[in-house]
Design brief:
212 residues; alpha/beta; DHBP synthase
């Protein structure tokens, strides 16, 4: 694994290396505001399988597609419910993923049946990388059942194997993202994370209920 330490906005050489990594079917470790992710081209089935193998991730746990712009969600979702749009408008870019009904795009292992999880991170370094590489199907950069990597430690040995790792120091949030199922009228919390429930309820007020 090639490790590059970056500070602030990645330089042109680093971005070029990231793009080459993804286009060649490689896997990329990158920072977000929550925890570090390991990602690949969402349409590349072999690269997606490589992430599952590196993490020892159980089959059937789909990846999340990370986007550089909230508007890119329409390329992966059949439709965005009023609740999904409310969440996106309130929190993207930010530490929340929405599960929506998907289009035919993406390798099978990067989606969950008829749904897909989408997120637009808030970290400026991450967004710069995503604008260069395009969307990435990703998950947290840790071996399954091990703590998520937040960059606070220099123990790079804790990371799963990848083609290229871009390390930019500690993440600002340090907790995994909240995951919301937006496929039904009532929004359901699939994983509690960086968002407070009260903030989610305010965003959904008058639009969609939050299931309990």
């Amino acid at each position: 694994m090639i490790v590059r330490k970056i500070s602030g906005t990645p330089d042109a050489q680093t971005l070029s290396a990231a793009v080459r990594c993804i286009r060649a079917g490689g896997t990329l470790i990158f920072p977000t505001e929550t925890v570090y992710g390991i990602g690949c081209d969402p349409d590349d089935a072999r690269a997606v399988e490589a992430i599952f193998a590196a993490k020892r991730r159980p089959a059937g746990k789909p990846l999340t597609v990370h986007l550089a712009d909230p508007g890119d969600a329409v390329h992966f979702a059949v439709e965005l419910s009023a609740g999904a749009r409310a969440v996106i408008d309130a929190f993207w870019p930010g530490p929340v993923a929405v599960v929506v009904r998907r289009t035919a795009r993406c390798a099978a292992a990067a989606r969950g049946g008829q749904t897909i999880a989408l997120r637009c991170p808030a970290d400026a370094t991450c967004l710069t990388i995503l604008r260069a590489t395009g969307p990435l199907a990703a998950t947290s950069a840790n071996v399954s059942d091990k703590p998520a990597f937040t960059g606070a430690s220099e123990d790079l040995a804790s990371l799963p194997e990848a083609t290229l790792a871009l390390i930019a120091g500690p993440t600002s949030v340090g907790r995994e993202s909240t995951v919301l199922d937006c496929t039904a009228e009532a929004i359901r919390i699939l994983r509690r994370g960086a968002l407070e429930i009260a903030d989610i309820e305010r965003a959904l007020s008058g639009v969609a209920p939050l299931a309990r």
